[in-house]
Amino acid sequence: MSLLSILFFSTLTGLLIPQKIFSIIDESFDSKPKILLSSNFMYQKKIGKSLGEKYLPVIKAKGGGGTSIDYRGYDINKLDEYIDPGPYANSYFINGCDGGNIAPKSMKCSSTLPAWQNKNYSIKNLLDRNPTSAWVEGVKGYGQGEWFEIYCNNLNTIYNGYQSSPANWINNSRVKRFKIYIDGRPLCYLDLTDEMGEQNFELPFDIKWDKGHLFRFEIVEVYPGEKWDDVCISEIGVQGCCVEGNQNILLGDGLMQPLKFAANSTISVFDSITNPTLKQSEILKKTKRTHFTLINISTSNGSISVTPEHKLILKDYGSISLMKLREILNCNTYEELIKHNLQVYVYKDGKTLYIPLINIMIEKGVFETFSIRQTKTGKYFIINGFVQETDSE
Known about the structure:
mainly beta, globular, single chain
């Protein structure tokens, strides 16, 4: 019997379904990328509503494979400027890369550990772009049931534990599982890995560029600290604006190279759409992220896979993300955008021009994605023939 048949039968009969069934859904993110419909979000919401909170989807965050980072070796105020400094490995701390039009705001929390020796553990530390500070719950024991709330359009990045130093991280407790609420309604469970550094995840709801939500993160399970039961989270946020790493960027010598290998490459750039004269430039800032949903768009000139928040240059709309355009055109799905006769800016046969989009598909999987945030000169560059704009703030 298929999974859908089991779900339908159990809903009618009231039978309980083992939690393992839902781990099968989650484990699909670890397999090779595959094409799914965007209605998957609606399906996940129906699961939670029809079967009750016990069978909410379990989302598994993806980290760096056990990375231990000592931020004390870096200038905290310049974390966004690093490109290849050891443990960052092409990444950067939370900065840049818009994830929507509503900046995250810390709202309130159930408790806070009192300040000690000029250090505070406020909920504001969750959004201060400083991994060495943290929100710490303030009740006796391991904090199960304690929570904090963030208002924004989406969240997909978290730094687990107190990351001021490797010693403080291991001595204090970390979150193993959160229960996530959206606007007061249970949404899913989120399982975190037990490691320093950044973790990425994708919450199962339909993200809108201009629509904010109140997210509550409630502690369910913890990784106990070696000395203290205080449970800590250093940072949370949202990141977007990325291109899948196997897409080819046009180098300065006219050859192509996968974006993931182009950390210190010289690439072809130009200054403006009105003056598309190619010249060579170095990459000054490039970032790396893990994403779980991409949009693949195709033209007669080729295709490119990008995050929904990533900006493309479209005729009559300028530089705009498909997430934002979907709201402007009032489309229920990204696939519906194809009905609006969109034209995208490309580089073809030595010149730039607008050509029609012919297909849009949703891709699901675990994707290593990259953004070029700054080049030494020029503002525009070319990936898979599509003209791209640097993602600087």
